[in-house]
Amino acid sequence: MMQFDSISDFFNMGGYAFYVWLSYGVTFFCLATLIITSARQKRKVLIDIAKKMDREERLKETRSTKS
Amino acid sequence: MWKWLHPYADPERAYKLSGTLFPWFAILAGLLIAVGTTWGLVFAPTDYQQGDSYRIIFIHVPAASMSMAAYMGMATAAFIGLVWQIKLADWAAASIAPIGAVITFIALFTGAAWGKPMWGAWWVWDARLTSELVLLFLYLGVISLYASFEDKVLAARAAGILAIVGVINIPIIKYSVEWWSSLHQPSTIRITEKSTMSTEMLYPLLINILGFGLMIGAITIVRFRAEILARNGMRPWVRELAKAEEVK
Lengths: 67, 248
Prior knowledge:
The structure holds two protein chains of two kinds. By secondary structure, chain A is mainly alpha-helical. Chain A has one domain (16-66). Chain A has helices at 7-12, 17-66. Chain B is mostly helical. Chain B has one domain (18-243). Chain B has nine helices and no strands. In chain B, helix 4 (87-119) packs across helix 6 (152-165). Chain B starts with a helix and ends with a helix. Chain A binds chain B through residues 1-4, 10, 13-16, 19-20, 22-24, 26-27, 30-31, 34-35, 38-39, 41-50, 52-53, and chain B through 41-46, 51-53, 55-56, 59-60, 63, 98-99, 102, 105-106, 109-110, 113-114, 116-117, 215, 219, 222-223, 225-226, 229-230, 233, 238-239, 241-243, 245-246.
C-alpha cells in the first residue's frame, strides 16, 4: 500500500526530507561515478596498448631503414 | 576439481566467461535495486519510532553488509593469489578494492545522515562506526599499495598481505554492537530467530541487499576484464582487440 497521500507528501518524507534525499542522492552520485569510470576503463586500456604497438612499429621501421 | 578449474585460469577464457556472465549480474542487480528501493521508499510502512527517516535503512544496511562481504571476497581472492600464485585471483582482488571503498563510503555517509536526526550527531567515535571507518582505510590501503608498484606481481603481493591481515577487522565490525555498549542499534535481521522488523520492511531490505551484492559483482566483472587486458598487453588476442578499438 502506498504510504504517502501526494507527491509533495512523498518528497517531504515526514519532515526528514533533507536527510533521506541527501542519503539517496549521495549514494546515487557515488554509484553512478563508479559505474561510469569502471565502464570507461576497458577502452582506455586498449587505446594505451594500441599506442604502444604503434610506437613499436615505428621503432622497427627506423631500425630497418638505417641498416 | 583443479583439473576442471584450470582452463578458467587462462586469461582469455576468464575474459570471455566473465563477459557472458556480466549481463545476468547487471540486469538482475538493476531490477532488484529498482524494486527494493521503490518498495522501501514508497510502500514500506512508516516506522512508529523513527518516522520516515528510517527509509535510509534500504541503502545503509545493504551498503554496510556488502562492504564487509566484498572485503571477504577481496581477501579470499588475495589469499588464493598469494598461496597458489594464480594471477587472475590477484586481478580479481585488485578489481574489488575500489568498489568496496565506494560502498564503505556510502555506508558511512548514509549512517551519518541517519545518525544526525536520530542521535543528534553526524558522527560519534563509537566501536561500530570506528571499525567501519577502519574498513574504508583498509580498502584505500589496498588500492594505494596495488597502484604503488610498477611490477604488478609485487604490487599484488603487498596489497594481498594487507587485505588478508585486515580480515581481523570484519568480526570486530560485526560484533562491535554486542561487545561494546554502542549508540548503534543491533542488527534487525536475524538468521536463526525471528527478525525484529516487520516483513513489509524486511522484504525490500533483503531485495536491496541481494541487489547490491549483484551490482558489486557486475562492476567487479567490468573492472576485472579491464585489468585482464591491462596485464596481458603483450598477448596477441589482446593486441587484436586493441587494434580493433583504435580503428573505432
